[in-house]
Amino acid sequence: MLGLSFGKVLVLIVLAAAVWLAYRWMKLKAPAAPPPAKRPPPATPGTQDLTRCATCGAYVAVACARSDCAIGRSS
Prior knowledge:
By secondary structure, this protein is mainly alpha-helical. It contains one helix and two strands, in the order αββ. The termini are far apart.
């Protein structure tokens, strides 16, 4: 079937070494990739002060959604 003689094995080793050396040579000749650009830090979302509702006890940013709450009423 497949007779592996010393000559065939030697040719295979020489071919593998040639491919490996060519790969190394091409890798050394290739220009180095520039370093990645620095990203600016992510913007932090704005913060809001929370006020505790005296009626329901929930902490709300602007106005409480309950109709009987003192924070949500405009008048």
